[in-house]
Amino acid sequence: MSKAIEHQQLSKFKNSLENRANHKVLERAVTKNGIYTTSADYRSEVNMTPVFSIDLDTGDVANQKQSGRCWMFAALNTMRHDMKNKFNMPKDFELSQNYTFFWDKLEKANYFYENVINTASLPTSDRKVSFLMTTPQQDGGQWDMIVAIIEKYGVVPQSAMPETFNSSASREFNSTFDLKLRKDAVTLRNLVANGASEKELEDTKEKMLDDAYRMLAYSFGEPPAHFDFEYRDSDKKYHIDRNITPIDFFNKYVGWNLDDYVSIINGPTADKPFNHMYTVEMLGNVVDGRQVRHLNVDMATFRDVAVKQLQSGESVWFGCDVGQSSDRQKGIMDTELYHKDELFDIDLSISKAERLDYGESLMTHAMVLTGVDLVDGEPTKWKVENSWGKKVGTDGFFVMSNDWMNEYCYQIVVNKKFLSEKLQEVLNEEPKVLAPWDPMGALA
């Protein structure tokens, strides 16, 4: 039964407000300064001093600029951190984010076409079809998706494929590319409806991908098949590696067994019991490539494996809801940063599971853990390498409170050797398939 707001109720609300002490003071403060400034707590800044008992030297921060490639930057940053230690790379060395961006876009187009064909018998009003058409592709992704790209195409240094206007500011390209993909979806769905053969569909899709490759080459430049890697290390010693391929470059200079690195999530919702594997329907980029797989664990385990990897000297890729209780300029992420509940005298508490179930939170950004402050063996705050350049935080690094991690961190990537034997066995479990719109399928 619906009921409108009555004038009698409005009078009651007005009287309730006027009977509150200091309501005029608070009204002036909030209307003049906004909610965040008025509710900010300076003690958070004091508690989030950027000093850590474990602090990895990772070099300069990168800058994704006006693009949504944080997941890609974070993954490539963890790899360049290791390269810095192995090969004494200069502190400003970066792997090419534009190179992996190009291939991710092309593979996402093919992944989209396959999903369009697979759902072509469903009406456009079906939720899955609507989900596909809402965002045919985007800049974001997850760890397993960058692994799928690297396993197929390798990596290159930024000198071999530098940034372009469109890689650093991707809005124009995404708008145009999505238009093309939706137009192509109309064609593919019509072909299926008219009984087209598998060969006709494949030939049509190949022409669409040829067009996509051209659009990408014009916008990002064409990826190198081989290149010369020339650099001076931190001691100014000269090095050159001639005519190397991207796959060989990855094997020689990164050299990771990517199968060793697994996605750990903390999704405490009723539909995802801990200590089990999960995947998300229609989530990925490379058809027949690495599947997105998550091991869901409790928060104590989540923190413990992150600490262990940092203690071993290796940084940690992680995904979170960066906009919650954070100050971009100061580089602070802390649940005590703002007290909006006290400001409005309203209970705004909601559990992590409830935030996920009711759309209040999901993973929006990926960064890298590069340090942690341990007190009596327990983490109190974490050092975070962001990819927003040096002008925010402390030279681009942020401080995250342990409580903020508990509430707003959803994913880390760790070497499976840091997991217990029991959890390593769970990694072999057939994952439960979650709906395409599940919050654990959010792209950072």
From TrEMBL:
It holds the Pfam family Peptidase_C1_2. One of its GO terms (cellular component) is cytoplasm. The keyword tRNA processing does not apply. The keyword Protease applies. PANTHER family: BLEOMYCIN HYDROLASE. Belongs to the peptidase C1 family. This is Aminopeptidase. It comes from Liquorilactobacillus mali KCTC 3596 = DSM 20444.
